[in-house]
Design a protein that fits this description.
36% of the residues lie in helices and 25% in strands. It has a single domain, classed as GAF domain (Beta-Lactamase), CATH 3.30.450. The chain has 164 residues and is an alpha+beta fold. The longest helix is centred in the first third of the chain and has 19 residues.
């Protein structure tokens, strides 16, 4: 697990994760394989997570996310853009940083152990393709440094992947 005990340690951890992501994705451009590898890297490297994964825009139903590659307990399969933290991220295409998920109106409790959440939009060529969702059993686990770190990581994923 990476050391994220201070702002400096966190910056160094995210820089290392970017290097690791580039290495894991090197030579492979398949979108599904890369999302799966990316999720495994994050889940097994970042401390205090109980879920990490993607919800992808459903090509068959407008304004709905469908479960993609993830690590953690079983999860909700479909999320409307109008529901929960992931839906809010998809709807606004803005990072959602929630210190206490129980205080978030309309929060979807897939795992009752989750206390805080960070959700980032996955945008490719100006188009929303999905969201990357991170849950933690710790309240206020995520902060603006985490959001910036994961935005940079997602950039590595987007540029290293061929999208359908």
């Amino acid at each position: 697990m990476l050391d994220m005990s201070s702002p400096q340690a966190k910056r160094e951890a995210y820089a290392l994760l970017q290097k690791q992501a580039r290495a894991v994705l090197h030579g492979e451009r398949d979108w599904l394989a890369n999302l799966a590898q990316f999720t495994a890297l994050v889940f097994n490297s970042v401390p205090d997570l109980n879920w990490a994964g993607f919800y992808l825009v459903n090509a068959r139903k407008e304004r709905e996310l469908v479960l993609g590659p993830f690590q953690g307990k079983v999860a909700c399969v479909r999320i409307a853009f109008e529901r929960g933290v992931c839906g809010a991220c998809a709807r606004t295409q803005q990072v959602q940083l929630v210190e206490d998920v129980h205080a978030f109106p309309g929060h979807i409790a897939c795992d009752s152990a989750s206390r805080s959440e960070l959700v980032l939009p996955l945008i490719v060529d100006g188009r929303l393709r999905g969201v990357f969702d991170l849950d933690s059993p710790l309240p206020a686990r995520f902060d603006a440094d985490d959001a910036r770190g994961f935005e940079a990581l997602l950039s590595v994923l987007v540029t290293g992947t061929d999208w359908p």
